[in-house]
Amino acid sequence: MILTVGKNGAIPLPNELCEDSKISIGDILIFTIIEDNRSIKLEKFEDQTLSDEQIEAHGNLTRVEEINLKDFE
Hints:
alpha+beta
């Protein structure tokens, strides 16, 4: 699946993908850059209790947020 990265690094997650992966708003995801450096793999992180500061300190984590359509204009 090819997705366009928006302003501020936002990545839209289609509803079908979220439903299939059981991803919800507020979930913490870990992302891994694939060897070709053009792809990333997103997975639900096992510890869903981290604060925003802990997520930022980790470096490869992000929280699923409601999308702002202005980020993709």
